[in-house]
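Incident log, support desk, overnight shift.

02:14 A customer reports that sequence design results differ from what the structure should imply. Their input is reproduced verbatim below. On-call engineer (initials T.W.) acknowledged and began investigating.
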């Protein structure tokens, strides 16, 4: 069967520095993939190429059997910094001031989902970090993307806000059947959220693990996830 997204023998070299070497990856439509690994291992580079923000030095990335050769129109990104426009209100950050009725209705619905209705006329500087990231998530969802690319979006949040955001992301991507790729250095976050875990080390995809326990909410599920966290950490450090 045709895979939704494939990364075929992709390498990326910056001047003399290899950021990613010979990566191969297949992603199913609707799946949730986490990419973990130490800082500098090539996670962001991989995500940026899938977003079409960078081109592979060699190899190719295909989505819906079409090569990604420029900014990927089916994908939206979210980063650790919210990248909101400070001179626009929350709702304007979603619509960019468009008068289009449908766009504005969609923005309202998303703000409701994110429990941000009361802040729609606030400027980003008046919001907490968690609220700003919810706005950033809403903005990423405005154009109904097929593919959501998340590069450590929760890295700057406190532990409880982070858990809440994880649940929100899971709920929305499940409901809207959005294929999601999450870069994180937090292995327990990866195991909590993803059905598949990709371990990147020294610019290479070292291992790919299935996570059948994602969302399994009983004692066994919790235990098996803890075991998987240990296994992944062991691969990162010793693999
Ligand atoms: N634009 C760039 N120019 C030169 N080197 C880069 C560039 N982007 C990334 N790199 C290098 O590629 C390697 C992988 O970076 P990155 O993908 O950002 O890693 P990660 O996201 O896993 O921390 C690092 O050594 C980094 O310094
Ligand atoms: Mg990175």
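02:41 Re-run completed on a clean worker. Output:
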């Amino acid at each position: 069967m045709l895979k939704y997204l494939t990364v075929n023998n992709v390498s990326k070299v910056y001047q003399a520095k290899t950021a990613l070497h010979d990566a191969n990856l297949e992603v199913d439509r609707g799946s949730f993939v986490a990419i973990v690994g130490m800082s500098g291992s090539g996670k962001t580079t991989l995500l940026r190429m899938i977003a079409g923000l960078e081109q592979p030095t060699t190899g190719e990335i295909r989505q819906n059997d079409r090569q990604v050769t420029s900014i990927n129109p089916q994908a939206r990104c979210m980063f650790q910094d919210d990248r909101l426009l400070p001179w626009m209100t929350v709702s304007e950050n979603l619509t960019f001031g468009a008068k289009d009725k449908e766009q504005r209705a969609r923005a309202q619905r998303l703000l409701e989902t994110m429990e941000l209705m009361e802040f729609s006329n606030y400027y980003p500087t008046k919001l907490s970090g968690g609220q700003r990231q919810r706005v950033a998530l809403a903005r990423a969802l405005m154009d109904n993307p097929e593919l959501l690319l998340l590069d450590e979006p929760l890295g700057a949040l406190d532990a409880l806000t982070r858990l809440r955001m994880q649940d929100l992301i899971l709920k929305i991507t499940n409901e809207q059947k959005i294929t999601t790729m999450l870069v994180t250095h937090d292995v327990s976050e990866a195991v909590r959220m993803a059905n598949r875990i990709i371990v990147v080390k020294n610019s290479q995809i070292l291992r790919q693990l299935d996570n059948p326990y994602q969302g399994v909410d009983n004692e066994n599920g919790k235990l098996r996830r803890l075991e998987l966290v240990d296994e992944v950490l062991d691969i990162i450090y010793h693999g």
